Amino acid sequence: MIRVVVVDDEPMVCAHLRTILGSAEDIEVVAQAQDGAEAVEAVVRHRPRVVLMDLRMPGVDGLTAIERIAKLPDPPAVVALTTFDADTYVIRALRAGAAGFLVKSTPPEDLIGLVRVAADGHTVLSPEAAQRLVAMSADGRRRGDDARRKTEGLTERETDVLACLGEGLSNADIAARLHLAEATVKSYVSRMLVKLDCANRTQAGLLAHEAGLVKR
């Protein structure tokens, strides 16, 4: 079972998400919380694989909660929830360690699939969304220069894999595209995360966009 914690200060939103996710046989909503402090407590208590985290909440907000959860041992995948498809606050959440983001208007059938994607350790972020987020960044040019400097030390094959991460591809998809074994791709990704000082695949994918490695 994919254990999920839902976090939103609107009880109706929590109830809606619980109903949708509860309809899937392989997903269980083990807890819900109404602010960031409750979210961290729920993660420690229930050890979910995925957290759906509203960003704008009174008290301890979602961004602070994501930062705290990222510091826990073996943290779950945290997916930011927003009412906007390109929210500047989302950029900060992704930098803090979120595995991606979803708009609250995501269709129910898509939401279930995307929770499964997050549980498998993959990025929940479309290339289009990533491009919009990078474009919105106030210091986008400086970040682009920094990203290119970071990626200069990668091998040609590592650069290819990083570009695929920027497209949101899974390890299996990358392996098929680059004619590599899936285990080899996994090794490349793990090594790159260390080289690039990225907490997860999502941060690496955004870095690929900032460095101009992803075709638009």
How would you briefly describe this protein structure?
It comes from Amycolatopsis umgeniensis. By secondary structure, the chain is of the alpha/beta class.
What topology emerges from the helices and strands here?
Layout: E1 2-7, H1 11-22, E2 27-33, H2 36-46, E3 50-54, H3 62-70, E4 77-82, H4 88-96, E5 100-103, H5 108-119, H6 127-136, H7 140-151, H8 156-166, H9 171-178, H10 182-196, H11 201-210
Parallel strand pairs: 1-2, 1-3, 3-4, 4-5
Helix pairs in contact: 2-3, 3-4, 7-11, 8-11, 9-10
Give the neighbour order of strands across the main sheet: 2-1-3-4-5
Per CATH, the architecture of the largest domain is 3-Layer(aba) Sandwich
Q: Which of globular, elongated, flat, extended, rod-shaped describes the shape?
A: globular
Low-confidence stretches: none
Query: What structural class do helix, strand and pairing data support?
Result: alpha/beta
Query: Which topology of the largest domain does CATH recognise?
Result: Rossmann fold
Mean pLDDT: 86
Q: What is the helix content? A: 55-70%
Radius of gyration: 17 Å
Number of domains: 2
Summarize the biggest pleated sheet. Answer: 5 strands, parallel
If you had to describe this structure to a student in words, what would you say it looks like?
- There is one protein chain.
- The chain contains 11 helices and 5 strands; from the N terminus they run βαβαβαβαβααααααα.
- It is 55% helix and 13% strand.
- The mean pLDDT is 86.
- The chain has 2 domains: 1-125, Response regulator (Rossmann fold); 139-209, Arc Repressor Mutant, subunit A, CATH 1.10.10.10.
- It has a 5-stranded parallel beta sheet with strand order 2-1-3-4-5, with helices on both faces.
- The chain has helices spanning 11-22, 36-46, 62-70, 88-96, 108-119, 127-136, 140-151, 156-166, 171-178, 182-196, 201-210, and strands at residues 2-7, 27-33, 50-54, 77-82, 100-103.
- The longest helix has 15 residues, at 182-196.
- It is globular.
- With 216 residues, the protein is of the alpha/beta class.
- α3 (62-70) packs parallel to α4 (88-96).
- It holds the Pfam family GerE.
- Residues 147-212 form the HTH luxR-type domain.
- Keywords: DNA-binding, Phosphoprotein, Transcription, Transcription regulation.
